[in-house]
Specification:
With about 230 residues, the protein is α/β, with parallel strands linked by helices. It contains 11 helices and 5 strands. Helices cover about 45% and strands about 10% of the residues. It has a 5-stranded parallel β-sheet with strand order 3-4-2-1-5. The C terminus is likely disordered.
Length: about 230
């Protein structure tokens, strides 16, 4: 590791107590074979939700999203998106934006997520997609968790020496538990849902016993700082 890296990080790496926390910027670095971005930023995602609502003749909700984005109120925009994208539209919207196949990815753009795997066999991601699985050298052996896999979260905390990705904000394979709206953030981070108690307790324990390295994150995810 480089001499410019703090000694504390080197020690955490050597002791296997270093855990990357992956944000949207990592997935946004991926491109398809035509050189186009595969994943949107949070702002782009919410703008796409507004566009979809216009297509569904729900312009008031779309206008509300645009207004919230105008003052950088991402959770407010997400709330309007959830209210407008009712029934199957919500799941359809997420699948349209995050169900990317491995073959869609330009191989060279996987360099960043692959490098992240060299830091730790345990990764926490805020992203819903399968990018970290695709980037893992042993992708067939990756264990993917979300906040509903309570037993496996205990193993994650104790380091089971198996490549593991914890989708802290949910994953594309379990859209019922996606964390995006203000209600869902409050359920997780403000301990307002007993179903998330194990997840929150585990995350707090990791914050005190391991070193988290934020990669591809921005202040749009400021709920983590509470």
């Amino acid at each position: 590791m480089s001499n410019n890296i703090p000694e504390s990080l080197k020690k955490a790496f050597a002791n296997k107590t270093l855990i990357p926390l992956v944000g949207a910027g990592v997935s946004m670095s991926l491109i398809n074979k035509n050189g186009n971005s595969l994943f949107p930023s949070w702002r782009e995602l919410l703008q796409r939700a507004a566009n979809k609502l216009i297509d569904e003749n729900k312009r008031p909700h779309a206008t509300a999203i645009s207004g919230a984005l105008g003052v950088d109120d991402y959770q407010g925009a997400a709330d309007y998106a959830r209210k407008g994208l009712t029934g199957s539209l919500w799941n359809q919207f997420f699948k349209e934006n995050f169900s990317i196949k491995r073959d869609d990815i330009e191989e060279s753009s996987l360099l960043l997520p692959r490098a992240i795997w060299t830091l730790s066999e345990r990764i926490i991601t805020l992203n819903y997609d399968r990018v970290m699985r695709f980037a893992c050298p042993t992708s067939d052996d990756v264990l993917e968790l979300d906040n509903t896999t309570k037993g496996e979260l205990a193993d994650f905390k104790s380091n089971n020496n198996k490549p593991t990705v914890w989708h802290l904000h949910g994953k594309i394979d379990n859209l019922e538990k996606i964390i995006l709206t203000s209600e869902s953030y409050n359920k997780l981070y403000l301990d307002k849902d007993p179903d998330y108690k194990v997840a929150l307790t585990t995350f707090k324990a990791l914050c005190s016993t391991t070193t988290l390295v934020f990669i591809g994150c921005s202040l749009d995810g400021a709920e983590l700082l509470h």
